[in-house]
Design goal:
About 85% of the residues lie in helices and about 0% in strands. With about 130 residues, the protein is mainly alpha-helical.
């Protein structure tokens, strides 16, 4: 047994363990940490976007909608125009990096933003 222990090339064994076990494990752990931080960043930016959407919806209501709602000027075209204005204001309030990250994370960013505007309208009406 002692002959076997003396004949083992310990550096080769350590290098093999490094290449086969430790390095892949560290790579996996690093990837998981990266994905977790990316998800946290997306969550944070999503919260910021929703706050921006809520503020934009309030602003557009106060400056544009309340004066024409209930009149003949309140057409479906005008409603879409106002919705697009609120979406634009919400996006402009984001930093460029936040916008790029959220857009990359959501395949249909525009539809998601539409749903956020709808949610913000519902939340504001039911407060």
């Amino acid at each position: 047994m002692q002959e076997i222990m003396q004949s083992i090339d310990w550096m080769e064994l350590i290098n093999a363990l490094w290449a086969i076990v430790i390095l892949p494990l560290l790579t996996y752990i690093g990837k998981q940490i990266h994905e977790w931080t990316k998800a946290k960043k997306i969550d944070k930016y999503s919260d910021i976007l929703y706050k921006n959407v809520t503020a934009a919806v309030k602003d557009v209501y106060e400056t544009t909608v309340k004066d024409i709602k209930g009149t003949e000027d309140w057409t479906p075209e005008k409603q879409n125009e106002v919705k697009e204005l609120a979406k634009t204001k919400a996006i402009q309030a984001l930093s460029n990096s936040a916008y790029q990250i959220l857009k990359a994370a959501n395949n249909d960013f525009s539809a998601w933003l539409d749903s956020l505007v709808g949610t913000a309208l519902y939340d504001l009406k039911n407060k």
